[in-house]
Specification:
By secondary structure, the protein is of the alpha+beta class. It has helices at 20-30, 46-57, 131-145, 163-170, 213-219; strands spanning 5-12, 34-38, 60-65, 68-72, 79-86, 91-94, 97-100, 104-113, 116-124, 150-155, 174-175, 194-198, 203-207, 225-230. The protein has a single domain (5-230), classed as Endonuclease/exonuclease/phosphatase (Deoxyribonuclease I, Chain A). The protein starts with a strand and ends with a strand.
Length: 234
C-alpha cells in the first residue's frame, strides 16, 4: 500500500488446480495488498495447502470461510475478521440435471485505507438460480454489521442482468467492473460473472491486469479483478 491507496485482487483460483506457476506470476504481477480468493484449495490438509498457495504468491493466509480466503501482503493487517456460513439450497436442478452444492460462506475483515477503516468481504455465490439472492441477502446483512464502508467482491455466478446484481444496485453499491469486460472464461472471455462492489463513500476503480495473456489463460478458468481503493477521489 502506498500513498493512501490499497490494491485488492479478487480471484477465483479454480481450486489451485491449474497451472500454479502461471497463477503465481499473475498474482505477483498484480502486487495486491489484499487478495480475496474464491475456490481456494480444500479437503485434506486444507490449511497447509492454503498457506503453501499464499507463499507462492508472497502473501500470508489470514482468514477463511468455506472456500473463500483472505490473504494479505507484509505490512497489512486484517482486524476483526468475520467468517460465516451462508445458507444455500443443498440441491439444485437444471432441466433434468440434479446436483448437490457445497456449503456456502463468506469472509471479511477490516483493513486501513489511509486513516480510514474499510471492510473487505469475499464471497462465492452458488449455482442455484433462486438461492443466490437469498445468499446475497445474508452476506449484505453481515456487510452492514461491520459499520464501515466496504468492498464486496467475488464470483457471483450470474451475469449483470440477473437478480443478484439488481440487489447490489438497490443496496447503493458502486459496480466497479461495469466497464471492465467479461471475466469468464479465461480462454474465451464472454461472461461477466465476477464482481467488485463498493460503498459510495469510498473511491475505487478497476485496474488493468498487468499479467501476460498466456498466464491468465493457464492460471485459472476465471480472470481476476484488480481493484485500487483510495481514501478520496482526488
Amino acid at each position: 500500500m502506498s500513498g493512501g491507496a490499497l490494491r485488492v485482487l479478487s480471484y477465483n483460483v479454480h481450486r489451485w488446480g491449474d497451472d500454479r506457476t502461471a497463477l503465481a506470476r499473475v498474482v505477483k504481477a498484480c502486487a495486491p495488498d489484499v487478495m480475496l480468493v474464491q475456490e481456494a484449495p480444500t479437503w485434506f490438509g486444507t490449511r497447509k495447502k492454503r498457506r503453501a498457495m499464499a507463499a507462492t504468491f508472497g502473501l500470508r493466509y489470514v482468514a477463511a470461510s468455506a472456500r473463500n480466503v483472505i490473504l494479505v501482503a507484509d505490512g497489512i493487517e486484517l482486524v476483526e475478521p468475520l467468517h460465516w456460513r451462508i445458507w444455500r439450497p443443498f440441491v439444485r436442478r437444471r432441466l433434468n440435471f440434479i446436483a448437490t452444492q457445497l456449503p456456502g460462506g463468506a469472509v471479511g475483515g477490516h483493513v486501513l485505507l489511509g486513516s480510514t477503516r474499510i471492510a473487505v468481504v469475499c464471497c462465492h455465490l452458488g449455482l442455484h438460480i433462486l438461492g443466490r439472492r437469498r445468499e446475497l441477502e445474508q452476506i449484505l446483512r453481515r456487510c452492514r454489521a461491520f459499520g464501515t464502508p466496504y468492498l464486496l467482491a467475488g464470483d457471483l455466478n450470474e451475469e449483470p442482468d440477473g437478480p443478484v446484481w439488481k440487489l447490489l444496485a438497490e443496496e447503493g453499491l458502486t459496480d466497479l467492473g461495469a466497464d471492465a469486460g467479461p471475466t469468464f472464461s479465461s480462454t474465451n472471455p464472454h461472461k461477466r460473472i465476477d464482481g467488485a462492489h463498493l460503498s459510495p463513500t469510498v473511491h475505487g476503480r478497476i485496474l488493468p491486469t498487468p499479467a501476460a495473456p498466456e498466464d491468465l489463460a493457464a492460471a485459472s478458468d476465471h480472470l481476476p479483478l484488480l481493484v485500487e481503493l483510495s481514501s478520496s477521489s482526488g
